[in-house]
Amino acid sequence: MTKFFRIAARNVFRNPRRTAFTLLVIVFGAVSLILAGGFIANNFQGLRELTIRNGLGHLQIFTNAYMNGPEERPLQLGIENPAELQKWLEAQPHVTASAPEIEFVGLISNGEKSEAFLGRGIDPDRQSDLGFNVNIKNGRPLGTTSGESEVILGTGLARNMNAKIGDPLTLLGTTTDGALNAIDVRVVGFFSSGIKEFDARALKVSVPTAQTLLDSTRVTKLIVKLDDTGNTEPARAAIAAGLTGMGRSDLGLRTWRDLASFYKQVVMLYSSIFLFLGVIIVVLVVLSSSNTMMMTVFERVQEIGTLLALGTRRRQIVTIFLFEGLVIGVIGGVLGCIAGYGAMLGINAAGITMPPPPSFDRGILLNINFVPGLYGAVFALVALTLVISAMVPAIRAARLHIVDALRHV
Amino acid sequence: MTEEAIQLREVRRTYRLGKTTVPALEDVSVDIRRGEFTAIAGPSGSGKTTILNIIGCIDKPDGGRLLINGEDVTDRPLHALAGLRNRYFGYIFQTFNLIPVLTAYENVEYPLLLAGVRREERRERVGSLLQSVGLTAHAKHRPQELSGGQRQRVAIARALVTRPLAVLADEPTANLDSRTGNELLDLMAELNETEQVTFLFSTHDAKILEKARRVLSLHDGRLVETKAAELLHAVAGGRA
Q1: Residue B179 to residues A1, B95, B158, B228, Cα–Cα distance (Å)
Q2: Alpha-carbon dihedral of residues B95, B99, B103, B107, nearest 10 degrees?
């Protein structure tokens, strides 16, 4: 094999200009894949962390009854004594914070106009501990010391209600017992999640305010923050085992991945786009490289004839050309990865801002992630692609008729 | 081991040129014995190269039989004869046909690599042959760094390195000046005498015909035993 590899490797540098052109195509393809993959990885990471920070947390604990079936009335299937559970949770490995949350729906009214809302009862201090960033556009976040019931409104809902900071509003909802209830709240701020449709319906109050409206001491769920998103699975397993050990088999866990359906859809969409892009680039590289290698076969017809005459077997001729493809592929893969890394650093340093994506009201910074696995995959793909590109020329070379090949000028 | 290295029996070969079929060889029968220094003479296009190609198992006859070292190989497809080509034949081409990316040493070594010869033996054989052809100092040179004569010397060394049954030389001096051609011819004649290597030439070079101990001439696709002197006379008279 060494002898064929030696011939192949030397042939690669026989026509430096042509090899350089082939390498240029390969490097272009590799850089495109690395940048596209790094950009998509950055988007995945950004969306994942945004999803987690926007209220999902890394883990959520519900009652199994809540997870298995719809509640007929708010907090009917909620968690009792959440404070005690929170204390235990925060002693578990990887857990850095936890917070209770209540989900409820109702109507909001200013006396003249009513709108349906999606409400969240939150603990503002705990939410800060979780790292949840409430993007306050106007006013202030919910307070923890004020005796008055406060509300912050999504920017869209505030617009729909013509609400101003300091305005009194009324929230109407159904209690856990099924009775209608209403409480007065004061608007202290407007927030934006970045998703317009959500902001047109969303409002947040403190947990006690929500519990007063719903007439219950329960909460819908406990949200758990971990030290690192990568520790989600080990933490989930440890907490699940701990809950079982404590005899709290009435409680169940969901990870952010289970709950982030939008994230999963985006990942699927982007992955399909990346795959499509990858296929196009591979086809371009295959066509270009195959054409170049075919030219080298035509130039070396007499040489191939000589090799065959000396006793080289046809499969060995194929091996020589496949090795040539592999050598170019390996060199191109290495150069492509280096160039891709350089391009990534350049783009990241340039601080380019992209227009806001659909449903977002602000632009995002163009950032390319360094994904070691992607570099490995691109390197392997390029090397494999070049071997595939060499396949047809190699077979063509091996099928040459010896006499015709020797006569070829 | 038979006395005859190569036996052709009523070998026929035709070529198709468009819609026309041109006979190159017609019922050619000949025995080439071990240690012969034989020249096949004939005008251009007479079929000299075709005979060498068929003997060297790089072309197939349309009819007749080919026996190499007593073994009938006629019906074996060309691709199955790669090992046999490597084991039994050394080739010297008019255009030298060295592998451009290999050094002189590596070009000579290549057939031994194919044959799976051990490194020590390869080193010994290649070194000895490069010395015989006077190219020890040029062992690391690539073909483009060598003169025409030096390239053909490398080709001779390559042809001999496997200790073949026969060396098939197709117009080996055609691309060389007469002095270099004579030197190489003397070298091959010496190797024939000292090593008993069988040489089979296709040529119309008078110098080769002079040196050849046996001359076969091709006329109208048929091979006939000829005396070198007659042929040289014919060459001198411009009729061949």
Answers
A1: 40, 17, 22, 21
A2: -90
- Put simply, the answer to whether B114 touches A406 (Cβ < 8 Å) is no
Torsion angles phi and psi, residue A122, rounded to 5: -125, 160
Give kind and range of the element (H or E) at residue A407: helix A402-407
Is A406's CB within 8 Å of B97's CB? yes
pLDDT at B240: 40
Cα angle B210-B216-B217, degrees, rounded to a multiple of 5: 100
What is the sign, positive or negative, of the torsion defined by CA atoms of A265, A271, A272, A273?
positive
Hey, are the CB atoms on B59 and A302 less than 8 Å from each other? no
User: Rounded CA gap, A3 and B170, in Å?
Assistant: 27
Q: Please name every residue paired with A398 in a beta bridge, in sequence order, or none if there are none.
A: none
Cross-chain CB nearest to B101 (options A14, A302, A305) = A14
B31-57 pLDDT tens trace: 999 899 999 988 888 888 899 999 999
User: Comparing A330 with A358, which gets the higher pLDDT?
Assistant: A330
Residue A325 CA to residue A289 CA, distance in Å, equals 9
Taking an 8 Å Cβ-Cβ cutoff, which residues of chain B contact chain A? 53, 56, 58-59, 78-79, 82-87, 91, 93, 95, 97-102, 106, 110-111, 113-115, 158
Show the domains of chain B with their CATH numbers. Answer: 4-236 (3.40.50.300)
Rounded Cα–Cα distance for residues A119 and A14 (Å)? 71
Q: Residue A77: what residue type? A: L
Alpha-carbon gap, residue A22 to A15, rounded angstroms: 11
Q: Which residues of A touch B78 (CB under 8 A)?
A: 402
> In DSSP terms, which residues pair with A190 in a beta bridge?
A138, A153
Residue B184, judged by CB atoms within 10 A of its CB (0-12, 13-18, 19+), counts as: buried
Strand pairing partners for B12?
B63
Nearest to B99 among A303, A308, A402 (CB): A303
Whether residue B106 and residue A302 make contact (CB cut-off 8 A), yes or no, is no
Q: B96, B158, B102, B110: which is closest to A8 by C-alpha?
A: B102
Mutate to test the interface with B, among A1, A314, A406, A407 (most CBs of B within 10 A): A406
Say if CB A137 and CB A194 are below 8 A apart.
no
**A308 vs B82: CB contact, 8 Å cut-off?**
yes
Chain A hits for B85, CB-CB cut-off 8 Å, are 309-311
Question: To 10 degrees, what angle do helices A372-398 and A16-51 make?
Answer: 150
A51 pLDDT band, cuts 50/70/90, is: confident
Rounded Cα distance, A348 and A343, in Å: 8
**Residues of chain A with C-beta less than 8 angstroms from the C-beta of B84:** 311
What single-letter amino acid sits at B224? Answer: V
| Contact (CB<8Å) B53/A403 | yes
How far apart are alpha carbons A106 and A169 in whole angstroms? 13
Q: What is the pLDDT of residues A69-123, one digit of tens each?
A: 788 888 999 998 888 899 999 899 899 999 999 999 999 999 889 999 999 999 9
Contacts of A403 in chain B (CB under 8 A): 53, 58-59
Strand bridging mode B71-72 / B20-33: unpaired
A277-281, B7-11, B68-72, B236-240: which has the minimum mean pLDDT?
A: B236-240
- Whether B82 sits inside 8 A of A14 (CB atoms) is no
- Three-state DSSP at A256 gives helix
CB spacing of B102 vs A11 below 8 angstroms: no
Shortest CB distance from A3 goes to which of B78, B84, B110? B110
ipTM of this model? 0.90
